[in-house]
């Protein structure tokens, strides 16, 4: 792909972009109509050898346009517009749009401000500039080093504020995948297990019994819950203060997701769910004691248990369509504070995706507890 060149016609600057690949003309047109891509100023011109020239509006720095990798303004001001832009991107082409090159130099932003002779916007603007590696899901192809998802990345190790604003974008775009994860096992090594005496002793002691296997699975599952509830990045991304109440809510949310998944595992799933729940209760009691509660301990534990039941009931209603999951999360995690609506939206998308990931996880891995909740969503 050649670098764009800038020309001027009738007093208006435009860019000629030369590409040697199929260009997503339809995607560009739709984004342009949404105000999320430069306007196309001429027809697609094709030449022998598969080369094409695209003419488009020039995003002039004099008009306030800046590539994201050179942006030095207030990153908080871009948060909502970036999230909204990605949501709209995914509605294009009947919801089948994908983009593998959303790097900072391919995203231009413009902030509201006063300038002589320039019509600046009232709200921040963002436009996708280079769509050469965009197109329809299942049709467009990418080089092996290019990401095939619509993911915004800001690769600046020193820009912690930037990273914290944009790494959440993955929540909107990452396809659900199995949560299988090797947590190790108490199973004896093959050379030991083949010992007839060893096998006999293990069998007699009940090591291979269904109950023992479920018990080991329950410990692994609850370990996965505790580890995710302790992930400090969750609290940063979901705008939650790291304290007992928030950590308890996180435990409850991930417990509920596990219990939903175990409902499809029949009688054994029900037994495993009960074991995990008992571990949950024991852990909550230990946490309450660690907070220094010594008086009326049972009262506090009963109240926390009722909170879990209430949350689970509300979340269950979202599965049946009787309540919006975002509303349930806003109420339980943010005390119905409407200013936290965007954070609740992000948490809802995370919850929905994790439920889908659990569905994709094979029964054998769920029942043995060989899973880990998604943590790669917060690495960008």
Can you describe this structure?
The protein is an alpha+beta fold and 380 residues long. The protein is built from 15 helices and nine strands. It has helices spanning 25-33, 79-89, 92-95, 160-166, 170-173, 190-193, 196-204, 210-229, 232-237, 244-262, 266-290, 297-319, 325-334, 341-360, 363-367; strands spanning 5-9, 12-19, 45-47, 51-57, 66-67, 97-99, 107-110, 125-128, 134-136. The longest helix has 25 residues, at 266-290. Mean pLDDT is 77; it is low at 1-6, 143-173, 188-194 and 202-208.
Q: In summary, what is this structure?
A:
Helix content is 46%, strand content 10%. By secondary structure, the protein is an alpha+beta fold.
Topology, element by element:
Layout: E1 5-9, E2 12-19, H1 25-33, E3 45-47, E4 51-57, E5 66-67, H2 79-89, H3 92-95, E6 97-99, E7 107-110, E8 125-128, E9 134-136, H4 160-166, H5 170-173, H6 190-193, H7 196-204, H8 210-229, H9 232-237, H10 244-262, H11 266-290, H12 297-319, H13 325-334, H14 341-360, H15 363-367
Antiparallel strand pairs: 1-2, 2-4, 3-4, 5-7, 6-9, 7-8
Q: Biggest sheet, in brief?
A: 4 strands, antiparallel
Neighbour order of strands in the largest sheet: 1-2-4-3
Strand content: 5-15%
Q: Helix count? A: 15
Could you say which overall geometry the principal axes of the C-alpha atoms support?
A: elongated
The separation of the N and C termini measures 27 Å
Question: Which regions are unreliable across 5 or more consecutive residues at pLDDT < 50?
Answer: 1-6, 143-173, 188-194, 202-208
Structural class: alpha+beta
Element string (H = helix, E = strand): EEHEEEHHEEEEHHHHHHHHHHHH
Which radius of gyration do the C-alpha atoms yield?
26 Å
On the 0 to 100 scale, the average pLDDT is 77
Helix content: 40-55%
User: What's the count of strands?
Assistant: 9
């Amino acid at each position: 792909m050649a670098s764009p060149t800038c020309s001027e016609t009738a007093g208006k600057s435009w860019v000629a972009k030369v590409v040697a690949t199929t260009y997503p003309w339809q995607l560009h047109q739709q984004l342009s109509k949404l105000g999320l891509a430069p306007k196309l100023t001429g027809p697609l011109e094709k030449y022998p050898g598969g080369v094409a020239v695209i003419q488009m509006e020039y995003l002039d720095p004099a008009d306030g346009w800046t590539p994201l990798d050179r942006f030095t303004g207030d990153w908080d001001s871009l948060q909502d517009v970036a999230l909204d832009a990605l949501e709209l991107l995914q509605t294009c082409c009947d919801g089948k749009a994908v983009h593998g090159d959303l790097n900072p130099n391919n995203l231009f932003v413009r902030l509201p401000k006063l300038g002589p002779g320039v019509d600046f916007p009232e709200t921040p603007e963002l436009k996708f500039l280079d769509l050469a590696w965009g197109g329809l899901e299942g049709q467009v192809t990418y080089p092996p080093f290019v990401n095939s998802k619509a993911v915004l990345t800001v690769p600046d190790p020193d820009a912690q504020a930037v990273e914290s604003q944009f790494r959440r974008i993955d929540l909107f775009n990452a396809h659900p995948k199995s949560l299988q994860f090797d947590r190790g096992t108490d199973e004896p090594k093959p050379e030991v297990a083949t010992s007839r005496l060893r096998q006999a002793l293990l069998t007699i002691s009940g090591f291979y019994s269904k109950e023992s296997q479920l018990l080991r699975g329950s410990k692994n599952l609850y370990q996965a819950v505790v580890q995710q509830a302790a992930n400090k990045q969750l609290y940063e991304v979901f705008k939650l203060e790291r304290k007992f109440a928030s950590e308890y809510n996180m435990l409850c949310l991930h417990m509920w997701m596990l219990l939903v998944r175990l409902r499809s595992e029949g009688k054994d799933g029900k037994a495993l769910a009960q074991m995990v729940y008992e571990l949950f209760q024991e852990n909550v009691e230990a946490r309450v004691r660690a907070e220094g509660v010594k008086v009326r301990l049972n009262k506090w534990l009963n109240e926390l248990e009722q909170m879990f039941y209430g949350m689970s009931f509300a979340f269950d209603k979202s599965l049946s369509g009787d309540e919006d999951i975002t509303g349930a999360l806003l109420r339980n995690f943010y005390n119905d504070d409407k200013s936290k609506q965007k954070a609740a939206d992000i948490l809802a998308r995370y919850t929905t995706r994790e439920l889908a990931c659990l569905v994709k996880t094979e029964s054998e891995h769920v029942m043995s507890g060989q899973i880990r909740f998604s943590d790669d969503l917060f690495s960008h």
